């Protein structure tokens, strides 16, 4: 008897969520076509560094990619919170959770993860310069149409095309509330800065200041440091980027911050700086419609404060791939609806928690900022840490009913490139 399982899935968007979904499906023998609007491979490898926490590696393990990703990353052993006066507010040991769950927390280049996911999918399955213009569906499948006049047909369509998703817009017939602006911008960069004394390998530094300023940094390799300067709108209004270069304006804004903030900014070229206005969407439903489903930022975009945007895209992609890979073609709509039920609550908790943490960074006055620092000093090593890990390693991470075989090797301990 002929098989009735899903044969072909169309994925729109070659970011982390789309490629993770595609990699999981390819691993199960499902035919996949990935369509990406950006026209060249170089355009896909933008962005700086970021953190992938334990939960992301647990998901990557299920599609056999955890070891490869960890081998191209730097394992983080400490997450340290400080004030803009250099006072330590909290220090989280990450080795304990790594041993407990069997998966690391790592810092890496976004391009590194993208290359590994691309290799798992296969470049021949990724079509660049394919801008979606719309899709239609019927009882037997879904058809996607593109700006060059071409079309593709599959059993399901995955919208993984980001914050301003064309798949999502078509699903809502153009009636969509704009993304929610968080009130701050992240100035992201990777700079060449050797020296363990300046930035020790294995520690992720998270500095909180007054005036709507924050600063994050960690080492990516023996010679490279990733950093984020987070500026509220009120703080950004004081940056004179007309007279000064962006780097010089940031150097002036952070001139009184403790070392090595000044050295990190001074070492960075202006062309390395990427300003990103931070948005999310309030939690809500409507990720699936018949044979079409959203994943990653198209479904649940979130602010950067938990470093879980990529992690949640990976989780959702792995769960979606496992459910679709074992799905009867006649049951695609119900399975996609079930996927949303499985993932919506966990993603919503991440979105809300990340948004609320971000509000703490908008404090401008000295007294409110110092009270926030006191709260962090009192509670972040205990209550906040427990709540963070309870959310990160929630049982819902394992609610996927269909496991995908993956690697289960030891956690690499990589200190540099």
Automatic annotation (TrEMBL):
Q: What is the source species?
A: Streptomyces marokkonensis
Looking up Pfam families in the UniProt record yields:
FAD_binding_3
Q: What top-level branch of life does the organism fall under?
A: Bacteria
- Looking at the record, the residues that make up the FAD-binding domain are 8-353
**Keywords tagged on the record:** Monooxygenase, Oxidoreductase
The answer to keyword Cell membrane applying to this record is no
Q: InterPro entries, per this entry?
A: FAD-bd, FAD-dep_Monooxygenase_BioMet, FAD/NAD-bd_sf
Please identify the protein, giving its name as recorded: FAD-dependent oxidoreductase
């Amino acid at each position: 008897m002929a098989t009735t399982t899903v044969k072909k899935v169309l994925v729109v968007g070659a970011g982390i969520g789309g490629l993770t979904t595609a990699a999981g499906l390819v691993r199960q023998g499902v035919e996949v076509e990935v369509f990406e609007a950006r026209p060249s491979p170089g355009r896909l490898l933008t962005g700086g560094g970021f953190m992938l926490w334990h939960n992301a590696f647990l998901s990557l393990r299920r599609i056999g990619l955890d070891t490869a990703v960890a081998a191209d990353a730097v394992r983080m052993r400490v997450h340290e919170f400080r004030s803009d006066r250099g006072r330590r507010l909290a220090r989280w040991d990450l080795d304990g959770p790594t041993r407990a769950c069997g998966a690391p927390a790592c810092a890496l280049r976004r391009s590194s993860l993208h290359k590994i996911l691309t290799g798992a999918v296969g470049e021949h399955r990724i079509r660049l310069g394919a801008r979606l213009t719309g899709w239609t569906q019927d009882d037997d499948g879904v058809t996607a149409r593109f700006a060059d006049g071409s079309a593709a047909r599959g059993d399901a369509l995955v919208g993984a095309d980001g914050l301003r998703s064309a798949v999502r817009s078509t699903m809502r017939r153009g009636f969509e509330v704009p993304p929610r602006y968080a009130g701050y911008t992240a100035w992201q960069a990777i700079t060449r800065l050797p020296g363990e004394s300046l930035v020790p390998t294995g520690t992720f530094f998270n500095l909180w200041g007054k005036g709507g300023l924050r600063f994050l940094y960690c080492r990516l390799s023996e010679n490279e440091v990733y950093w984020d300067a987070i500026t509220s709108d009120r703080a950004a209004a004081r940056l004179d980027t007309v007279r000064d270069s962006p780097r010089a304006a940031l150097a002036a804004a952070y001139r009184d911050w403790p070392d090595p903030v000044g050295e990190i900014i001074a070492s960075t070229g202006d062309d390395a700086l990427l300003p990103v206005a931070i948005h999310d969407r309030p939690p809500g439903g409507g990720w699936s419609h018949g044979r079409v489903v959203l994943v990653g930022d198209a479904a649940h975009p979130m602010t950067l404060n938990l470093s879980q945007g990529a992690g949640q895209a990976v989780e959702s992609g792995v769960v979606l791939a496992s459910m679709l890979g074992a799905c009867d073609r006649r049951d695609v709509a119900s399975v996609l609806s079930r996927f949303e039920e499985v993932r919506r609550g966990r993603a919503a908790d991440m979105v809300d928690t990340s948004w609320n943490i971000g509000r703490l960074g908008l404090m401008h006055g000295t007294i409110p900022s110092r009270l926030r620092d006191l709260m962090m000093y009192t509670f972040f090593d205990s209550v906040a840490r427990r709540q963070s890990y309870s959310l990160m390693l929630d049982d819902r991470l394992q609610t996927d009913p269909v496991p995908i075989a993956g690697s289960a090797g030891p956690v690499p301990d990589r200190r540099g490139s």
